[in-house]
Amino acid sequence: MSTPEEPAPYGTGPAAPSPSAGTPRPKRVRTHHLREMKERGERFSMLTAYDQYAAATFDEAGIDVLLVGDSASNNVFGNETSLPVTVDELIPLTRAVSRSARRALVVGDLPFGSYQASPEQAYLTAARFMKEGGAHCVKLEGGVEMVPQIERLTRGGIPVMAHIGFTPQSEHALGGYRVQGRGETSARVLADAEAVQGAGAFAVVMEMVPGDVAGEVTRALSIPTIGIGAGAECDGQVLVWQDAFGLRTGTMARFVKQYADVHGVLLQAARDYADDVRAGTFPGPEHTF
Ligand SMILES: Nc1nc(=O)c2c([nH]1)NC[C@@H]1CN(c3ccc(C(=O)N[C@@H](CCC(=O)O)C(=O)O)cc3)CN21
Ligand SMILES: CC(C)C(=O)C(=O)O
Ligand SMILES: [Mg+2]
């Protein structure tokens, strides 16, 4: 009698080969290390990663935290916003990243609709990211209103990174891509930050918050803050890698710095290959059996 084939559970297969395969495993970054870095005044870096080679390369480069962002909705699946991406779509990407990162802390980003309804919904979703995706912790968007969810996950052994300021999953409620916490609304950002810390979050992302407000929040909190469009006073920084390394083209948010032109490199490589095939110069004798 044959049993239906089940996927191998996370961590049972051989590790995917990486550029650093064969060298001893570096010490894993853990949530408490980020807090210790804050206490020592050391900055840390976080990037998105959605697949094996990005994860292995960023890990080798010493990026401390890899976020399997719900921004995969735009940057992997081609949607216009982060709203349509599902848990079932994100979990295989999370698994690819957690299998490929040797040192970095891997964060699973809970997508829209998978945790807002209740603390129980949040726990069941987050547990899937940990069990099936191999994530070391999860991220969710929201401040004061997410306290019950953060408390539930934390009590259940799931470390939580919060995300306040501009929260893309609420872009329709917030009225578009807008800086949050200007003027008198800065009190809201500080209240959200203190609420998520009080609920047990180990870190908090602040997105599109004025630099002085982000600085004030960073000094007020004992947990590390991670900025994206939140100035230089945060304890860490995060960017979407396709933005920072120039795979994505077109208009970029002001907070993006472009470190490379991956789009240009890929475009030229693909053109050269197409030209070679058309001209009959690839494959050569050295590529032929
Ligand atoms: N590729 C990518 N990069 C991101 O940073 C990102 C995603 N995708 N997907 C999910 C969210 C959406 N995010 C966005 C998207 C656009 C702006 C933007 O256009 N900002 C403008 C307007 C700011 C304002 O009006 O004050 C800017 O100039 O920064 C910001 C954040 C951040 N996240
Ligand atoms: C931009 C970061 C913070 C994010 O949440 C994502 O990429 O999904
Ligand atoms: Mg996100």
Q: What is bound: which ligands?
A: 5,10-methenyl-6,7,8-trihydrofolic acid, 3-methyl-2-oxobutanoic acid, magnesium ion
How much helicity do the residues have?
A: 25-40%
Number of H- or I-type helical stretches: 11
How many domains make up the 3D coordinates? 2
Which class do the helix and strand fractions yield? alpha/beta
Strand content: 5-15%
Q: What name goes with the CATH superfamily of the largest domain?
A: Phosphoenolpyruvate-binding domains
The CATH C-level class name of the largest domain: Alpha Beta
Write the layout of secondary structure elements.
Elements: H1 31-40, E1 44-48, H2 52-61, E2 65-68, H3 72-75, H4 87-100, E3 105-109, H5 119-131, E4 137-141, H6 147-155, E5 160-165, H7 171-174, H8 186-199, E6 203-207, H9 211-220, E7 225-228, E8 236-239, H10 241-244, H11 262-279
Parallel strand pairs: 1-2, 1-8, 2-3, 3-4, 4-5, 5-6, 6-7, 7-8
Helix pairs in contact: 2-4, 5-6, 6-8, 8-9
Residues 69-71, 109 line the site of magnesium ion.
Structure description:
It is found in: Cytoplasm. InterPro entries: Pantoate_hydroxy_MeTrfase, Pyrv/PenolPyrv_kinase-like_dom, Pyrv_kinase-like_dom_sf. It holds the Pfam family Pantoate_transf. It comes from Nocardioides flavescens. The relative contact order is 0.11. This protein folds into 2 domains: about 30-260, Alpha-Beta Barrel (TIM Barrel); about 260-289. Mean pLDDT is about 95; it is low at about 10-15. Helix content is about 40%, strand content about 15%. α2 (about 50-60) packs across α4 (about 85-100), α5 crosses α6 (about 145-155) and α8 runs parallel beside α9 (about 210-220). With about 290 residues, it is of the alpha/beta class. The protein contains 11 helices and 8 strands. It has an 8-stranded parallel β-barrel, surrounded by 7 helices. The chain binds 5,10-methenyl-6,7,8-trihydrofolic acid (MHF), 3-methyl-2-oxobutanoic acid and magnesium ion. 3-methyl-2-oxobutanoic acid (KIV) binds near residues 69, 109 and 205.
